[in-house]
Amino acid sequence: MGLLTDSLLSEKEARSFLPILFKEIPVSIAVSEKTSDTASVILAVNDEYCKMTGFSRSELIGKDTLILREMIRPEDLDRIQTVLASGQSVTNMEIVWKHKDGTEKWALSSTRILFLPQRTLLVNIALDIGMQKKAEHDLAVKYEELQATYEELLAMEETLHRQHEELKAADARLALSEERFRLATEFSDIGLLDSDLLQPGEPFWLSSNWLYKLGLDQLPLPIDKAVYLQRIHPQDQPEREKRFEAFRRGISSIYEMEYRIRDRDGNWLWVLVRSSFIRDGNGVPLRLIGTLTDISELKSREMQRYYQATHDELTGLLNRRGFMEAIARSISDRQLVTGAFLVVDIDGFRFINDVHGQEVGDQFLQAFARHLQDSFPQDTFLARFGADEYLVFFPELTDATAASKLFHPLADVLLQTSAGSFVARASGGFFLCGGQEGTPESFVQKAVLAMHHAKNVEKSACHIYEPSMQAVAIRRHAIREGLSQALQNQEFFLQYQPIYAIEQIPERIIGFEALLRWRSPSLGMVSPDEFIPVAEETNLILPIGEWVMQEACQFFSGLNVQAGCTATVAVNVSVRQLLAPGFASRVGAIMQQYGLPPGQLGIEVTESIMMTDEQHNIAVLNELRAMGVSISLDDFGTGYSSFTYLQKLPIAVLKVDKSLIDEIAQPDRNALLLMESLVQMSRLLGYRIVAEGVENSDQLVLLRQIGCSACQGYLLGKPMSAETLRELYSFR
After folding, report:
1. What is the pTM (predicted TM-score) of this model?
2. Is the CATH number of domain 479-727 3.40.30.110?
3. Which of 324, 429, 664, 684 has the fewest CB atoms lying closer than 10 Å?
4. Predicted confidence (pLDDT) per residue in 466-479, tens digit
5. Pick the CATH number of 11-132 from 3.30.70.120, 3.30.450.20, 3.30.70.790, 3.40.50.300
6. What is the 8-class DSSP label of residue 409?
7. Which homologous superfamily is 311-466 in?
8. What are the residues whose beta carbons fall under 8 Å from the beta carbon of 355, sequence distance 6 or more?
């Protein structure tokens, strides 16, 4: 059998060449013979095998392979023995090999079972792949050794002829050596490459296993280099040529590269090529000698790990890291970034998770991600940015109007889950970078500021970044920080705005709305429009809401006892409070604690109760109504109000929002007609109407004319302190 298919060497030359290769080739080879089902004896090892294990030949030859098993991790040994026990060969198994001195190294190991007429041999071939897993320095050292080895082989070429007669007497040993080498090349994914650089076209010889793998086994040897190069992936060709040319010119001492090459079935294999030149005394390359290793499985696992590191597991979109890397690749050839960054936050998602569970929440997020993919162009970059936040990049988009239109599909989206359909509303923030300097991270941060601004101002809207938003964000942060200590430092206080019955003149007070105020030592008076959303986000609304309920009940209970005040006091309650376990029971306990009659307490809720766990919220409101607490629906007319769903709610009062009252005195009378319809419908359904924000006498006259029974506003009474209210009733 020849060294390589159609070898140019004679049989005797090949047999004299093989033991030297067996000794010098930088592949660890060990041959052992099975002596029983469970035991085997080591027959031969090459120098590389001794180097890898740390044992000398005398320590290995003739010894039971148990000495080698102890050097392999138990889990790796189990895998090897399992395969061998099935009668199969082990091919390219990655294992950790323990050196005699205790150090560990990675190896690519193959074991072939060879059934000879009177004996069974085990041929183990191991390739040190630490160079793939360790530093580049190890690679250089390894290939310097490889180059030295092949230079020695070249130097020995003349001595081979002188040893010809001696090698004849060792035919048996040479035959075994030939078999060892054949196994090393044909029963693993390691291939040998030998190219003559002095001949036209630089023809080369390739080991038979790789000739077959690449579908070149029918071609005569040597193979034209161009035939091989045509099989390399076009995208990998430029880098391969660049590295090889640097290697040829001596810029790089070794040649190593991973590239894709087409196999005999037309599939792309990943191959690791390592080569070294044999040069003459002047440094001119004479021959190229190297190895090829199929690393397709390694590459596949590597790509899988990279995918997992750069993609969101739940939605399949890019994660933050993957998004930033994709943007970096997209703009790598440009000095400035052009495009639009959009940050999208789902409004109220936390309620879905809290009420319906994480599984339904995950389904909701997946459905929203699919909606994003369907809504935007194919060249758009999409990522899941946070729990309920998504990040989008639109290349080349710089127009604000066009950007706003892109957000429209996210305004109201009906998404399906196993728990039913949910309306997804989102807030968004754009940053348009029309050729601006900066990093994608800084641009994303500005989009985040714009998104938070949108949520704070109106929610379910989209704003484009402006520099002034930075100051707003700083103030919001200061509010967040101060709010955490405000309750403990007694910085909150209540004011009470009267509600008047207006059927008769003079008007009379029938109730009050308790209004929360915050006087911060560092920020001054902070508007509820600023700090209430922050309290909602941080869940501070629960202890703050508890304090408001106690303060109002305590004050009006005392006012009732001291001055005979029977007017109701209405306390605003958020959805978060309604969702808190035992809320109704806690309200009842506070009323009992301070002795406030149930009919004197009211609570005001907004239409948002219909957007989050409607069934639960209605049950809580019914429980409160059964306790005698009056339920008012605040800000009526600003959302999706309809008398159809209002009938589901145990409400007694509709408080019409100021935005409608502002319009009733307009000449077109449309708002007045609408208000009149509301009054009539409410009377039929048994609701009392309170007009909010009445600020002039024209509005009051018109409200009387259409039959509105009550109003609230600066015209009749501004919010007053507890002291002022106490004085008011002390004179009655």
Report:
1. 0.53
2. no
3. 684
4. 988 888 888 988 99
5. 3.30.450.20
6. G
7. Reverse transcriptase/Diguanylate cyclase domain (3.30.70.270)
8. 579, 612, 613, 616
